[in-house]
Automatic annotation (TrEMBL):
One of its GO terms (cellular component) is mitochondrial inner membrane. It comes from Serendipita indica (strain DSM 11827) (Root endophyte fungus). The keyword Cell membrane does not apply. The keyword Mitochondrion applies. It is found in: Mitochondrion inner membrane. The chain crosses the membrane at residues 6-25. Keywords: Electron transport, Membrane, Mitochondrion, Mitochondrion inner membrane, Respiratory chain, Transmembrane, Transmembrane helix, Transport. Accessory subunit of the mitochondrial membrane respiratory chain NADH dehydrogenase (Complex I), that is believed not to be involved in catalysis. Complex I functions in the transfer of electrons from NADH to the respiratory chain. The immediate electron acceptor for the enzyme is believed to be ubiquinone. It is a single-pass membrane protein. This is NADH dehydrogenase [ubiquinone] 1 alpha subcomplex subunit 1. It comes from the Eukaryota. Belongs to the complex I NDUFA1 subunit family.
Length: 86
């Protein structure tokens, strides 16, 4: 049975486009995570630590080895303020 050679061009184009799209998606996810792999199955503790890291360093993937928190850490609480209707 002969091979339909004209079908190889669309096959190569589709394979290339899926490869390029997947690579670009992975690259953008990695760049958004400060060069680290994305996190999966995040539980409440990890979410709380990510919020703490965001308040300390400005990035959810950033961590600080400084034993003392910066002064603004005392005032940038994660608690939201509700507006009272009077």
């Amino acid at each position: 049975m002969p091979v339909p050679w004209e079908a190889l061009i669309p096959f190569a184009l589709l394979t290339t486009m899926f490869g390029v799209g997947g690579t670009l998606f992975k690259t953008t996810r990695t760049i958004n995570n400060d060069g680290k792999t994305p996190r999966y199955n995040i539980d409440n503790w990890e979410q709380m630590m990510m919020n703490r890291d965001k308040r300390l360093t400005g990035s959810i993937r950033g961590q600080s080895s400084n034993p003392k928190a910066p002064p603004e850490f005392a005032t940038n609480s994660i608690q939201s303020v509700k507006k009272l209707l009077v």
